[in-house]
Amino acid sequence: MIFESHAHYDDEAFDADREELLSSMAGAGVGTVLNVAADLKSVETTLELAKKWPFVYAALGVHPSSAGELTEESLEWLRKKLTAEKAVAVGEIGLDYYWDREEEVRDRQKYWFARQLNLARETGLPVIVHSRDAAKDTLDVMEAERALELGGVMHCFSYTKETAAKILGWGWYFGIGGVLTFKNARKLREAVETIPLESILLETDCPYLAPEPNRGKRNDSRNLPYVVSALAQLKGVSEEEVIGITERNAKRLFRI
Predict the structure, then answer these.
(1) Residue by residue, what is the 3-state secondary structure of 125-187?
(2) Dihedral over Cα of 177, 178, 179, 180: its sign
(3) Half-sphere exposure of residue 51, counting CA atoms within 13 Å on the CB side?
(4) What's the rounded Cα separation, in Å, for the pair 164 and 224?
(5) SS3 of 68, please?
(6) Would you state the pLDDT for residue 99?
(7) Beta sheet of 200-202, edge-to-edge order
(8) pLDDT in tens, 134-151
């Protein structure tokens, strides 16, 4: 079954129908969901979802745009939360320069990115990395912190095939979602052509980034078959093969 490797079902966008939606996952062919925290509040709500739903697991971390929340005390609190039974990754963490252009803010992002990479090392968990408009600095921080040893996934990968080749050399995975179906995603398709299926995870980033033909609408894991179809066509394999390989990849990375 489909392994959804990056969702935000604790987001307020799902407040009206969260129970009904999660109850429908098995019937839609989705067997496992990794819910990913983005700030300190969502660390708690993500753990609540994982506790309630047997097929939901938790990734815990603070997104770069929320890095201002972090202190040494809250980092220690996060460390303790990562010992929870169904916490399987540190994330999403990383750098996002799309909105934050001030040098001071970017330096803060880099500091807490490095600190959370060290947290992954201390807890022995893999990492989910968010990187937007920050390819060089992301890779520089990861290399400085020896992140290649940790294992992880580049969430919503959006860079060139040259960047992909470097990350592939580390043995890391690539999160591929609805953007692959967009008409203007030529650069991404070129990169994905060079990435073996054995290094790809399926993801939505829901409620964001719904694939065609639902682009612009609220996204959820039931849209992943559109991504499966796009990957199957790009790789010249069956949809069943895409689902099977990416599920094994995710279970291997997150040790589920």
Answers:
(1) CCEEEEEECCHHHHHHHHHHCCHHHCCEEEECCCCCHHHHHHHHHCCCEEEECHHHHCCCCHH
(2) positive
(3) 8
(4) 22
(5) helix
(6) 82
(7) 2-7, 30-36, 56-60, 87-96, 127-132, 152-155, 173-176, 200-202
(8) 999 999 999 999 998 999
N residues, the chain = 256
Amino acid at 155: H
Global pTM reads 0.97
d(CA 146, CA 79): 19
Distances (CA, A) of 71 to 6, 40, 49, 116: 25, 11, 25, 11
Helix (H, G, I), strand (E, B) or coil at 37: coil
C-alpha 239/C-alpha 112 separation (Å) is 39
Residue 106: name the closest of 78, 140, 82, 155 by CA: 140
Place of tokens 């050399």: 169
Q: Which tokens go with 93?
A: 């963490």
**C-alpha distances out from residue 129 to 6, 148, 211, 239, Å:** 11, 12, 21, 27
Q: What angle do CA 88, 91, 95 make, to 5 degrees?
A: 160
User: Nearest Cα to 251, choosing from 19, 88, 91, 26?
Assistant: 88
pLDDT digits (tens, 9 = 90+) for 74-117: 999 999 999 999 999 999 999 999 987 788 889 999 999 999 99
DSSP-assigned letter for residue 202? E
Tokens of 146: 């020896």
Determine the Cα–Cα distance for residues 34 and 240; give it in Å rounded to an integer. 21
pLDDT < 70: residue spans in the chain? none
